[in-house]
């Protein structure tokens, strides 16, 4: 089986799983304990935080470990909204955010906040100008994802951040960086970003751990009440094995960034070239999007049926995104891009990893051609 669903989750590096098992077995002390086992764990946690902060080019104290990017996004948005309520109750985000951002904003709407959901253009992008025009005197936070998890479209977050810092320094800027880190460069310190979410399992690390970069000086209302771990920002006994595993994955992703991007770009070019020549398919990704995601629709065809045909040929892909694919509703992201309900129901996402080769791509394309001709044949039979 060839796995082409890296935007959903990635196979963990062997080095990462080995380290996690070792740390779990040997260093089980609670980092809050005062004895030597506790101190050992605290040391491992400190080191993991340092490694993550170095990879991001930020300070260790600005890294908060969470249970994943869903929690990071919830903490950034609701934590900031609740903390800075006295500044105003208005937020800005986009129509194509991940559900963990989108639904956090919806929840705040129900709690009395006002949210502007910026519409995207046909390619799925927003502009700096749109954000600028939406800022009001009571705006507390802007949240824009770096790379869309369904289409791979890249939002101009660095330009948005710079504009906000220049013109509206009081407005906080959150970026969901889950699909961009290690694939599309983004210098946090030069991009006016105050809050930045990451997830380990999209970077060949473990599931169930993520982090939130919180710029020094920013206070968030904690979502979890408890023992005050993570400097009061995230209570709960720290997951030392996963923090260490995540730090390894983050470091490897950062070190491999240039090479991975170049390699994936070439493979994506090949995929896009071929898919755009297939008359049945409509491309929803662009060449200048993130290098690991290619998304297309097959209007008239149920995405799930095509997914299983490809699976029969030995290729695992995704319909929409993993978070939404169990619902059979048309993709919110594609609808926001103005695609027809038919196109939004028939989306297939191919997402690449650093292990893929040109041969893998040729195999996948062959499987796709074969599946399309099977559908053509079936449709022909139905008509006659
Ligand atoms: N944001 C984006 C853009 C994602 O792709 C995902 C994972 N589907 C998340 C947030 C949530 O991450 P996690 O699975 O770690 O909660």
From TrEMBL:
Q: Which GO terms describe its molecular function?
A: cysteine desulfurase activity; iron-sulfur cluster binding; metal ion binding
Q: Which Gene3D superfamilies match?
A: 1.10.260.50, Aspartate Aminotransferase, domain 1, Type I PLP-dependent aspartate aminotransferase-like (Major domain)
* Signal peptide, first to last residue: none
Cofactor requirements of the protein: pyridoxal 5'-phosphate
Highest rank taxon of the organism:
Bacteria
Q: Domain (Aminotransferase class V): give its ranges.
A: 3-363
The record's keywords, sorted A to Z, are: Iron, Iron-sulfur, Metal-binding, Pyridoxal phosphate
The UniProt similarity line reads: Belongs to the class-V pyridoxal-phosphate-dependent aminotransferase family. NifS/IscS subfamily.
Record's PANTHER family? CYSTEINE DESULFURASE ISCS 2-RELATED (PTHR11601:SF50), CYSTEINE DESULFURYLASE FAMILY MEMBER (PTHR11601)
Descriptive protein name: Cysteine desulfurase
Q: Which organism is it from?
A: Fontibacillus phaseoli
User: Which taxonomic lineage does the organism of this UniProt entry have?
Assistant: Bacteria, Bacillati, Bacillota, Bacilli, Bacillales
